[in-house]
Amino acid sequence: MKNTKIEHSINKGNLILVNKSHPYKEKNQLELIPISNNKNGISLNANAATVFNYMMQDMHYQEKIIPVSGYRTLEEQRNIFYQTMKAHGEIYTRKYVALPGCSEHQAGYAIDLTWKSGDEDFICPDFLTEGICEDFRQRASFYGYIERYPKGKEEITGI
Asked: What is the distance between the alpha carbons of residues 104 and 7, in angstroms, rounded to a whole number?
């Protein structure tokens, strides 16, 4: 029997792993489109944005849940990391901000959300575990979205 080498990849299509142990490796130019109903110019991968737009409209949460961050370039991630480091120090930054080159935002699939409170935080958005935020969490998986960094899982996620 012939020995065949099997190639293993942790990145298959839109199923990719990005973290400090697995930096993002850009392969192609990303097709990005803006998400609807946002005043911050946030874009996502075209497929992720299309589903996100539909999900928000279907759930009727456009005015209650606010996107605060989507796709970021490597340079934008660097700026966020180092500006947060200056403003809040190393411990805070490493707790809440991915290392440059190791952010899921660079792939165009990640979006940070907060509930509309009038005092939204870009670095550490507040997304409650009750009410509309909890309802959103429960329903988002039906659209293919998951909560990537749940409270209590910091040991596993690193964020």
From this structure: 24
Beta bridge partners of 32: 45
Residues whose CB falls within 8 Å of the CB of residue 143, separated by 6 or more in sequence, listed in order: 51, 52, 54, 55, 58
d(CA 23, CA 122): 22
Q: What is the residue type of 41? A: G
The angle at the Cα of 56, spanning 70 to 14, to the nearest 5 degrees, equals 50
- The span from the first CA to the last CA of the chain, in angstroms, equals 46
Name the helix (H) or strand (E) containing 146.
none
Neighbours of 81 (CB within 10 A): 19
Tens of pLDDT, residue by residue over 37-83, are: 777 789 999 999 999 999 999 998 888 888 989 999 999 999 999 99
- Beta strands at 32-34 and 43-45: parallel, antiparallel or unpaired: antiparallel
pTM above 0.85, yes or no: no
